[in-house]
Amino acid sequence: MSPPQQISAPKSLVESEMSKVLLDMDPGIDDALALLLAVSLPELELLGVTTVAGNTVVEKTSVNARRVLEYVGRGEVPVYAGASGPMARLLTTAEHVHGQDGLGEAGIPGPIDPPQAGALQFLSETIKKNPHEVTIVATGPLTNLGLAFLLNHRLPSLVKEIVIMGGAYHLTPYGRGNITPLSEFNIYTDPEAAKIVFESNAPLTCVGLDVTTNPSVKIDSQRYREISRLGGRKAELASKIMKYQIERFGEIEVHDVLAVAAAMQPAMFQMVEMNVQVLTNNDASRGATIPFKPKEGG
User: Fold this and answer.
1) FRET label pair with 254: which of 47, 103, 207, 216, CA 20 to 30 Å apart?
2) Pure H helices in the chain
3) Where do the H-state alpha helices sit in 26-169?
4) Residue 153 catalytic?
5) 98, 153, 170, 255: which is the annotated catalytic residue?
6) Where are the domains of the chain?
């Protein structure tokens, strides 16, 4: 069973201090929106992006991260490609949600040269160079982190915090799974990696479907039109990549945006401390995140 984790729900807004952040993600429409938010926050120092297979294959998620950064003039942020599949499973992708290219087939120009590998080394070296200072925001399957923690058992103790978009905790009416009734996509895709991360001694904050599927935080057609009229490169890009889901589903669930928000503005959220068990069974409970209240005194 894991140490107590914080599971979040919306609250109010306060200012944050400058924070060193690594993004570990699988862009993905909502990952791209989260990346846009990250580069828009002056209090956030983005040290780099590591990519993983999830919403689409890692070759595409890596290119997509660079597409977003270059489009908004932040091409200097390093992007490192990571795991091409789960630790012990076949890869489950979600092109039906994000489009074949992962960015809503919006025709966003991409880099010519292939992405550089080395996500695990970059994660490890960056954390060791900045002990207890780096917040990792993980918005895809946790394969990169699981592997990094296996290779270096001291690494979790050197992380300031890991904010995870993942899990369905059944703590609100919206906390049901989106792959199975119990399981959320990121955890379901690589439950073995998730189990390693959840059972590590790294401080974790989990932003699950309990929060991210709440209708009040979705982008509907009206909000989409408002964003499209804002002007500027970031709003222009957001509008282009969101169009795919607006046209097909009528709304966008901004799962990963809320993880960045929780990392930078935790007072927006109501936190509850729980122990969490990740199930790695080969049945309908695969990837379930089971919360338990911590025992008093331990």
Assistant:
1) 47
2) 29-40, 58-71, 95-98, 119-129, 143-151, 155-158, 185-189, 191-198, 209-212, 221-228, 233-249, 255-264
3) 29-40, 58-71, 95-98, 119-129, 143-151, 155-158
4) no
5) 255
6) 4-292
pLDDT in tens, 51-72: 999 999 999 999 999 999 999 9
Q: What is the pLDDT of residues 70-89, one digit of tens each?
A: 999 999 999 999 999 999 99
Q: In whole angstroms, what separates CA 40 from the centre of its chain?
A: 17
Work out the angle at residue 214's Cα, subtended by the Cα atoms of residues 210 and 220, and round it to the nearest 5 degrees. 150
Segment 9-32, tens digit of pLDDT: 444 333 446 899 999 999 999 999
**pTM, entire model:** 0.93
Name the nearest CA neighbour of 54 among 34, 72, 36, 29.
29
Phi/psi of residue 50, each to 5°? -110, 140
* CA–CA distances in Å: residue 51 to residues 80, 118, 150, 259: 6, 10, 18, 16
Residue in 185, 117, 129, 128 with CA at minimum distance from that of residue 151: 128
- What are 38's two structure tokens? 């990250």
- Identify which of 255, 275, 210, 200 has the alpha carbon closest to the alpha carbon of residue 8: 210
Tokens at residue 102, please?
């992962």
Radius of gyration of the chain (CA): 18
Residue 123 one-letter amino acid = L
DSSP letter string over 85-110?
A: S-SSS-----HHHH-TTSSTT-----
Is the CATH code 3.40.50.2300 the one for domain 4-292? no
